[in-house]
Write a structure and sequence with these properties.
Blueprint: H1 2-18, H2 26-40, H3 46-61, E1 112-113, E2 120-124, E3 127-129, E4 136-140, E5 143-145, E6 152-154
Antiparallel strand pairs: 1-2, 2-3, 3-4, 4-5, 5-6
Helix pairs in contact: 1-3, 2-3
Length: 156
């Protein structure tokens, strides 16, 4: 924790030394040395270190060539289409596409059981198929008929 704080302070000192108005006068340099001693002392409390750190930053950032604090913050990039002092036009959205209507598929026919054999017939096209024999039961009035045996199965 102390290492990065010291590195940041020394980086600030290095950048401040290159600016105009630095090094500070003798009184300022003596005060910075006192604050550095407080920061480096093992006997100083965390509150004293925080106060010394805040005062050092205030001294470093209040140099004569620092920009005025009264300047309002501004965006790094001017928004596209916005002239100085004009409002940004509202975004217009295209109209929504119409809602699609989906119709459900027709209900599948229920399987039919042959009462004589107990076989379950599966719907296939216009008729029914016996999965065990592969026979196709043809539709007739009132039910289905097995063409091989002539057996009639009533509609459910």
């Amino acid at each position: 924790m102390r290492g990065p704080a010291f590195a940041a302070l020394f980086a600030l000192f290095a950048s401040a030394a290159t600016a105009a108005g630095w090094p500070p006068d003798e009184a300022g340099a003596a005060r910075l040395a006192e604050l550095r001693a407080v920061l480096g002392s093992a006997a100083s409390t965390p509150a004293q270190r925080d106060a010394a750190r805040a005062e050092m930053l205030k001294m470093i950032l209040s140099r004569p060539d620092a920009p005025a604090a009264s300047m309002p913050p501004r965006a790094a990039v001017t928004p596209e289409g916005a002239a100085a002092g004009s409002a940004i036009p509202a975004m217009t959205l295209p109209p929504a596409p119409p809602i699609a209507r989906v119709t459900p598929a027709a209900k599948a026919a229920a399987p039919v059981t042959v009462p004589a054999t107990g076989a379950v017939l599966v719907p296939q096209g216009p008729g029914y198929v016996d999965p065990a024999t592969g026979r196709l039961y043809q539709p007739v009035a009132g039910g289905y008929v097995d063409p091989a045996t002539g057996r009639f199965v009533a509609k459910p």
